Amino acid sequence: MATPTALTYLPLATRRLLRDYAEIERAAIGENVSAGPLEANIFEWHASMRNGPLTVHLMLVFPKNYPHDPPSVTLFTPVPHANVVPSLGGYRICLDMLNPGNAAPYEGWSKCYSVASILRQLQAFIFDPAFQLDQHGTDMTIAVQRAKQFVCPKCPYTYDTPWPSFPTEYDLAKTAPTVVRRRVIAPPRKTPALRGPLIALAAEDDDAG
């Protein structure tokens, strides 16, 4: 019988989000993507993505029954994209992956998705040249201008100092040491992710695994 850990007694959604966060901490999603939960709310994540001159900031709000249902995703600034439309508090991404399980087989949301896999697909979709066009009065020049002016009201993000910070070369190279469970002392990040008790708990649990 497996030995219970501190995470065992947390709700399923909380446990899953903590493990998703530990996955990202172990291995960066990519050099152009950063993400992390708010310290006071594991169900609200903020992420940044960049491609060429454009950096966008997103908010992902996860339901209490995650991973059975997908998060809601809000872009804070416009993107010239056929499937990005104005919505309350920002811009909504129209993507079948973000729809609850009422789609055809192999389409729509799957509870197998993690935060990392969600963000990889969002990155590819948002910056796909096939979908980029002037939309709701926005071209790339306007999108870059609006993005540079944006200051997030809910986290420390600004265009010049993204939060969480984008991965360093060290972050991108640290996957191999993690696989063999070696402890590595990492240099401090420029803008470190916020760490609350739950996030620290997830890291401890992962080290014990």
End-to-end Cα distance = 14 Å
Detail the poorly predicted runs. Answer: 177-192
What is the strand tally?
A: 6
CATH class: Alpha Beta
The figure for the number of domains is 1
Q: Looking at the structure, what is the overall shape?
A: globular
- Structural class comes to alpha+beta
Would you list the SSEs in sequence order as H and E?
HEEEEEEHHHHH
Largest sheet: 6 strands, antiparallel
Major sheet: order of its strands?
1-2-3-4-6-5
CATH homologous superfamily heading: Ubiquitin Conjugating Enzyme
Taking all Cα atoms into account, the compactness measure Rg is 18 Å
Key structural traits:
UBC, ubl conjugation pathway, UBC core domain-containing protein, single chain, alpha+beta, Ubiquitin Conjugating Enzyme, globular, 209 residues, Ub_conjugating_enzyme, UBQ-conjugating_enzyme/RWD
3D architecture notes:
With 209 residues, this protein is an alpha+beta fold. 28% of the residues lie in helices and 18% in strands. The chain contains 6 helices and 6 strands, in the order αββββββααααα. It has helices at 12-26, 115-126, 140-149, 169-173, 175-179, 197-208, and strands spanning 33-38, 41-51, 54-61, 72-75, 84-87, 90-93. A hairpin with a 2-residue loop joins β1 (33-38) and β2. The relative contact order is 0.19. Residues 12-172 form the UBC core domain. It holds the Pfam family UQ_con. Keywords: Ubl conjugation pathway. It comes from Geranomyces variabilis.
